[in-house]
Amino acid sequence: MRTGRSRTLPLLGAVLLAGSLRAPGAEPEWVVRPEMRLPPGQPGADGLERGPLPGPIGQQLKGVHPRILFTAERLEQLKALVRTQPDYQALYKNLLSEADYCAKKDPPDTGTDSEDDAGEELWQRKVGKAIPNLALAYLLSGDAKYLAAAKKHIEKSLSYKTWGQGKFEGCDLAAGHQLLGIALGYDWLHAALSPEERARIREGLAARARTMASKAAGKKVWWHSAYLQNHLCVNGCGLATAGFALYDEDPDAGAWVRFFHAKLLTVMEHLMPDGTSHEGYGYWSYGIQHLLQYLEQSRDLLGIDLYRGGGVEHPWLKRGAAYALYLAAPRGLFKDGRRTMLNFADCSEQGAQPTYIARILAARYPSTPWAGAAQWLANELQAAGADATWQAYYLNLACYDPRVAPAPPDRLPTQHRFDNLDLAVSRSGWDGRESVLAVKCGPPEGHKNLKVEIANSGGHAHPDAGHFIFVARGAFLCVDDGGGVKQTARHSTLLVDGKGQKGDAGGEFDMRAWWADPRAPRIVKASSTPAEDLIECDVAPAYPPERGVAVFRRAFKFAKPDVVLLADHVETRAPAALEWRFHAGGQLEKVSENVFRAAQGEAVLELCVLEPAGLRATIGKLDGRKDRSYLSLAPAEKTAKADLKVIFRARDAKDATPFQPVLEKNAVRVNAGGKSLNLTLP
Questions:
Q1: CA distances from 21 to 318, 361, 424 (A)
Q2: Reduced 3-state DSSP string for 206-218
Q3: Burial (0-12, 13-18, 19+ Cβ within 10 Å), 83
Q4: For the chain, what is the radius of gyration of the CA atoms?
Q5: Residue of 110, 228, 366, 440 with fewest CB within 10 Å of its CB?
Q6: What is the pLDDT averaged over residues 474-484?
């Protein structure tokens, strides 16, 4: 445990921070150690533990404001940096732009029905998110309009009769965001608030925090033990931040910190060691934002560094920058501020990425191979207007470390396998126009947690083993549904007798099927050369025993940058109706008996069924969407054994070269990019 830590900003100038990862087996294991825990407190009748907090919060920062993320000394340094240093000036410009937007709009009195999701009152989140940006803009600029707007948002938030209705009242996302925003506003603006304003905010914040704490400690909220679900981190961070803001002013404040700190240690025990999220990139970025905020607070205020507890770097956090990099779409797609990520699980490709995550991970793990590239990615997103940091611009200014020089990822391998979730990503390069093939074939919460029942944590997972995304020619050609309906049929993999994989319950994902049958699909091989990559999968264990799937081997050969060869071998214990689905961006059309095509602007995807002959082919749409379609391939009769070989080609719409791949004994000959390729069968 540390007794203190300076929040002094690092000296400017590039410092060479290079390093390499040890092999996973050689790394010391990250486990919860005694020094990571808070000293024992006194249990209360409400289920919360009370007692003094250690570290600076109970010593040199006792009674001092501001103290969360910023101190008065650090703010003075930051004022100078945003006036004189270009990198800080760019971050400051974004902060002021968002603060100006929020200052011009009065916080809403109520939300509309379309914004209110079954009583969650999610429209209130925007009110909470605006407060820290407005508060920091005032502290750095001195402009009174930001102070007035911050106060208005705080007062409006506290005036809402409910923060969520019914079962959500005071204890879910609307409450989590407003607790966080008001707590930071109270701490940062303390000197600018009148005694009456402080008292009013303090009393309102404490009352709302007590509501959430009592319900969470009393296990009256579903997320209290959902250790891999974003709601726990979002709500817990809001509650703990309120505790830090009101510590030494409210007798219960320390208990709120204690509650989340204990929960977070369990979260960190179960996070995937490969850096991934079973919830998808979008929810990963949502949850990790709040987890990182608490880790920063823990370092500063408790003297407990969970980034490298006991001197061991946390593997999930350490590899988080790799997840951000490899799951990023080619940066040529950033230009419209959308389609910046590969959207497995519950994640829309139609979104931007928040840059503060990459900046924080680069700052905290500067010796990893991805640190400089993470800083580079943040800069690329920012320059392209694809930065979703509007909700927390203050974090970029709080955690940016200029000593980590941005470095393009050119020297990084173009293939990366995340071996816990079993997600392999192959890129043709890093020039911004590259093609990307990403294949997912692992258990929903990763191999580490396969036999661990983490209640309510798998709600954003999908039954999608063997599914893939292919991006080429500046377009998403083979796509993920990315939606909230969790069905195998909505992914590019296999249905058996019209039914899907374990967890496919017709709409919501059901983890109970995996607890009952923990056999795990996996990627058995991922290899790469400059010309082509190979990804081989064992998909059969993803299907429940009653489907009778004895063998389902799927292999991809990626001939960079334009061609993907897919080969499946399926065996079932009894003849079954097999159906393969392939989901494409754009509208598929039949070109010939075994060739299909979908166009997206200047990009075209061509799909040729090489084997077997006589498949029944049907083109369909999901939910009537015009922007995507799927191809269904099925044998005419039930069968107990089948081999499927399909080849995909991406081409420019102006390229009229006929697509006529030829299947030979052990290879496929195909024309692509003005040349003939001979691909040996995997």
A1: 10, 15, 18
A2: HHHHHHHHHHHHC
A3: exposed
A4: 26
A5: 110
A6: 90
And the tokens for 267? 């979260």
Mean pLDDT of 358-381: 96
Angle between helices 230-246 and 195-217 (to 10 degrees): 140
Residue 152 DSSP symbol: H
Phi and psi for 568 in degrees, rounded to 5?
A: -115, 145
Task: For residue 646, report the phi and psi dihedrals to the nearest 5 degrees.
Answer: -130, 140
Please enumerate, as own/partner, the contacts of 505-511 that have beta carbons within 8 Å and a separation of 24 or more: 508/459, 509/444, 509/458, 509/459, 509/460, 509/461, 509/462, 509/463, 511/444, 511/445, 511/453, 511/457, 511/458, 511/461
Q: How large is the angle between the packed helices 355-364 and 281-297, nearest 10 degrees? A: 50
The answer to whether 414 and 365 are in contact (CB under 8 A) is: no
Q: What is the DSSP string of 48-108?
A: -EE----SGGGTTTTT-SS-SS--HHHHHHHHHHHHH-HHHHHHHHHHHHHHHHHHHSPPP
For residue 401, how many C-alpha atoms fall within 13 Å in the half-sphere facing its CB?
21
- DSSP states of 602-654: TEEEEEEEEESTT-EEEEE-STT-SSEEEEEEE-SS-EEEEEEEEEEEEEETT
> At residue 113, does pLDDT exceed 90?
no
607 burial level (CB within 10 Å; 0-12, 13-18, 19+): buried
Alpha carbon distance, N-terminus to C-terminus of the chain = 53
The tens digit of pLDDT for each residue in 406-461 reads 999 999 999 999 999 999 999 999 999 999 999 999 999 899 988 777 655 778 89
The pair of three-digit structure tokens given for residue 658, joined into one six-digit string: 């006929």
Distance (Å, whole) CA 479 – CA 343? 8
Bridging pattern class, strands 42-43 and 436-440? unpaired
Check: CB of residue 346 under 8 Å from CB of residue 286: no
Question: How confident is the model at residue 12, as a pLDDT?
Answer: 36
Residues forming a β-bridge with 632: 581, 618
Contacts with 216 (C-beta within 8 Å, 6 or more apart), sequence order: 171, 223, 224, 235, 236, 239, 259
Written as one letter, the residue type at 231 is H
pLDDT, one tens digit per residue, over 73-88 is 999 999 999 999 999 9
Q: What pTM does this model have?
A: 0.93
| pLDDT at position 19 | 31
